[in-house]
Structure formats: structure tokens, C-alpha cells
Amino acid sequence: xxxxxxxxxxDLVARVPRLPRPGExxxxxxxxxxxxxxxxxQALAAARAGAVVRLFACVGRDAMAPIALRNLREAxxxxxxxxxxxxxxxxxxxxxxxxxxxxxxxxxSANAETRAAQIPDGSLDAGTTLVMQLEVAxxxxxxxxxxxxxxxARVVLNAAPAQALPAxxxxxxxxxxxxxxxxxxxxxxxxxxxxxxLRLAARGRTVIVTCGARGAIYAWRGELREQPAPRIDAVDTxxxxxxxxxxxxxxxxxxxxxxxAVREGAAAGSLACLHEGAQDAAPVRAxxxxxxxxxx
Length: 296
Known about the structure:
9 helices; UDP-N-acetylmuramoyl-L-alanine:D-glutamate ligase; 13 strands; alpha/beta; 4-stranded mixed β-sheet; 9-stranded mixed β-sheet; 26% strand
């Protein structure tokens, strides 16, 4: 069983020729409103990758909630752990440029009401893979990580958006997934990326750093390894990180080792860049397996 604890948003996406500079107004070419949020994105991507998924999160009692939950329901994600609260459903304001790069502003709203107590102890055991991000309160993420670790669940943390983490949270994480910017924040901002990756991999923790088109580096069992990414022509990178994390967690939940999980993550992240949107771009298990089999 794969449990996701995290955010649910509606993404408000503007397509622009390039990302705006401070104080600048650009004319966009298209607007879209779509389900999003890192928790929801990863829950959906994990379901498409073949996992049995239960999501614990919060939405508002508003017109945005059905939009936010639509794809999750269609994918068969268990939403019995999603709570309705009085705050509005969370939103993300996203600019995507013609090169497929993006910048994002997230407004938490209902996500700020998400609590670790929503997940019963009975759902956390040695057969559980718990996936979390940082779009809900870090105190709740920390409390849940410590409780899950104490009950022998596997704890996967995608430490995004970037922020410093309390030591007790890091100490409860089995697999840490970050991009290059997030890795530098956690490593203090001054270390070489590879050295920082190894330092973060203390206490037997696996650390995976995604590096965009270059693939990923990861520290596992005291050794630093590289995972090249397949060459693609990216259309939209918005959902790549979530697809990567979900595929890694799904592979681990299925019993694969870290190198195979990272291969599947690299495949899923690359496939997600071939289509627009975060959730709509999430690949299915067969696509991930075919591409992962071509990677060294």
C-alpha cells in the first residue's frame, strides 16, 4: 500500500513566450485550469504507475474541490482520507514558457488544515510506503514521518518546495528526493552538489537529486551513483518531479531496489515532459517499464 500525505490544488496555468521579470506584464497565449498540488499529482502518478494508493489531504467546500479531485477519482485513488474544511481549496499560479520551463506560486488555503492525525496508526506498518512533500505544514509532515518510522513504514520525502528541515524530520526519512536547488538549500547552499548529496545521506538514508535533462545522482549505501536521463524534446516540465518521485516510491513499494527505482523515476519524469500539464502528463506503468529498460 502506498499512502500519500500532502496537498491538493487547482492549477491556474498561463502559457507565455518567456517567464516574466519582476514588475513586468506579459501577454499570454493560453489559460488552463486543471487539477494539481504535489500530493495529488504524486498520488495520481503513483496510481498510473501501478500502485494501490490512498491519499490523505484537505479540500474546501467550494466549486474548486470537484475539479481538484476529478482525475484522482478516475484513476482509482482512495479518497476516503480527504477531508473537507472551511478554507478554500488550494491553488497554484503557474507560468509556462515556450521552452517548457515554469515558475509557480502556491497558495495553501485548505492544505494548511491538513493534519498527521488524519492517518490512523493501523495504516502505517512495514507494508506501507508513505510519500510526503512540503506543501502542507512541516510540523505535520515531521509528526507523521516520526510516527511512520516508529511503525516500520518506509518514509519517502520529496522536500519541495525548498526549505530548511528540522533534524528530527530528516532522521525519520528513508528516501529523500530533491532537485538541485532543493539539495543546495538542505546542504547549506555552499557545498558541491555531489558532496552535499553524500552528506545528506547520513544514517543509512538514500538521497536522490534530480538534475533535469542530465538525469539524477543518488547516494545509496555510502556510494554516489549517476542515472542518465533519456534524450527528449520537452514540451512541459511542470509534472516531471512529481512523476519521478511517484515512480520511485511505486517501484520501492513493489519491492524493487534503489537503482531500479531511480531508473523508473528517470523514465517517468522524462515521459511526463512530453505532454502538457502535471496530472495529464503522468505516464502509465507499461510506458515507464519500456523506457526504463533502455536506461543504463
